[in-house]
Amino acid sequence: MSRANKDAFGVYVHWPFCLSKCPYCDFNSHVRHAAIDEARFASAFAREIATTAARAPGREVSSIFLGGGTPSLMQPATVGAVLDAIGKHWSVASDVEVTLEANPTSVEATRFAGYRAAGVNRVSLGVQALDDASLKALGRMHSAREALDAVGIARRSFERYSFDLIYARPDQTPAMWADELRLAIDEAAEHLSLYQLTIEEGTPFFGLHQAGKLKTPDETVARALYDVTQETCDKLGLPAYEISNHARRGAECRHNLVYWRGEEYAGIGPGAHGRLDIDGIRHATATEKRPEAWLMRVESTGDGVVTDDLLNSEERADEFLLMGLRLAEGIDPERYTALSGRPLDPGRIALLREEGAITVDATGRLRVTSSGFPVLDAVVADLAA
């Protein structure tokens, strides 16, 4: 099936290994003390890509994202093999965005030139904080100086780069965060991902928090930190284009826009999720999370898929609403109607507008306001009801 229209199509590749597990992290990441057989994993990635492309042929790949885990633990040759496999089984746009997540340690930064040569054209660095005490508390293995040095190396290797910071950390004040943000924006050039620290069940931080040994800012301070984030980034030219992502105009992460705009993407690797349209039906796929189990499954059956749910019109519409309203650009309610078979309730829209949580422009586009974003889940639930 070839496509007459050039819809965005992303490929997400998950490298599941880390040197150590951060105490706040609930992602599918694993620590292995023995050497990883990268050649075997590269072959399995290629096999799963081939199988997925056979199910969803004729797509043009507009973005590729190598996430994890810690993809910068991969050798550049492994990254090159994965990108070659994608190019072998799908056509790839001439301006494809290829992002690799990297830890900002000096060891991994030395590989940046190799990644660039392999085809990566954008890196996303997991900096997380720009002061050493916070980095230690977050279980990170780099110093603030090392992080900034890695950003400098990224700047020399890539035209496009981004980094992540976590805020609402223990003992963090709005004034401290504003200073850190200004430093980050000086270094960031075009894109920052700024996440509020959340305490996830099953992580070491969860146990410490429950025991009263880890105190995060209360609701009032957390809201003040969020407000400082918006004000500082707006003022310095990196407004939010999504609830946690800030960019100069035109520098948005195109791969993440695939998710938030409800486009198609393939999920490759252990624990990867995908959304594929097959014979007009949206499939929600997920692969085996455990790396070695995924590997054996791919080698025996061609892919690691353990979940392949068909989304009905209501589920697709709800997902579109949930993801699309995270964006500053908002959503076109007519697309919601086309997906669900029913329009959004005008009464609920009117009430949310009255409360100042959403706006509707002259074209009918619906957006969440700056005062609506902190209560986004409630806004989405109200509209979807």
From TrEMBL:
Cofactor: [4Fe-4S] cluster
Record-annotated Radical SAM core domain positions: 3-239
First-listed, main subcellular location of the protein, grouped into a coarse class: cytoplasm
Annotated keywords: 4Fe-4S, Chaperone, Cytoplasm, Heme, Iron, Iron-sulfur, Metal-binding, S-adenosyl-L-methionine
SMART domains: Elp3
One Pfam match: Radical_SAM
Compartments, as annotated in UniProt: Cytoplasm
NCBIfam families per the UniProt record, alphabetical: hemN_rel
Record function comment: Probably acts as a heme chaperone, transferring heme to an unknown acceptor. Binds one molecule of heme per monomer, possibly covalently. Binds 1 [4Fe-4S] cluster. The cluster is coordinated with 3 cysteines and an exchangeable S-adenosyl-L-methionine.
Family named by the database record: Belongs to the anaerobic coproporphyrinogen-III oxidase family. HemW subfamily.
UniProt name for this protein: Heme chaperone HemW
Annotated organism of origin: Bradyrhizobium campsiandrae
